[in-house]
Amino acid sequence: MNFQKELDARGLNCPLPILKTKKALADMASGDILRVTATDPGAVRDFQAFAKQTGNELLGQAEENREFVFFMKRK
């Protein structure tokens, strides 16, 4: 998937991956896509809740080698 910005949140625990994602999205244009890599297993439910609460779209998520990758589209 194409993305305009990438955020490395590996090694960070809740709520830091979401807080850093919120800050990164604020600096992006509407429709831009942010790729986030995290290692906190709780990030899966956190990103789903974040998308519902903020209106930013969670386009996809995947897990590979104990790392979680999320694609967030800026509203």
Task: Please explain how this structure is put together.
- With 75 residues, this protein is α+β, with helices and mostly antiparallel strands.
- It has one domain: Translation Initiation Factor IF3, CATH 3.30.110.40.
- It is 31% helix and 35% strand.
- It has helices at residues 16-26, 43-54, and strands spanning 5-9, 33-38, 57-64, 67-73.
- It has a four-stranded mixed sheet, covered by helices on one side.
- β1, α1 and β2 form a beta-alpha-beta unit.
- The longest helix is centred in the middle third of the chain and has 12 residues, at 43-54.
- It is globular.
- The relative contact order is 0.27.
- The mean pLDDT is 97.
SSE arrangement:
Layout: E1 5-9, H1 16-26, E2 33-38, H2 43-54, E3 57-64, E4 67-73
Parallel strand pairs: 1-2
Antiparallel strand pairs: 2-4, 3-4
Give a summary of the structure in a few sentences:
The chain is α+β, with helices and mostly antiparallel strands and 75 residues long. It has helices at 16-26, 43-54; strands spanning 5-9, 33-38, 57-64, 67-73.
For the structure shown, list the relevant keywords:
75 residues, alpha+beta, four-stranded mixed beta sheet, 2 helices, 4 strands, 35% strand
Q: Order of strands in the sheet with the most strands?
A: 1-2-4-3
Order of helices and strands: EHEHEE
By CATH, the topology is Translation Initiation Factor IF3
Name the poorly predicted regions: none
Q: Report the helical percentage.
A: 25-40%
Task: Evaluate the radius of gyration.
Answer: 11 Å
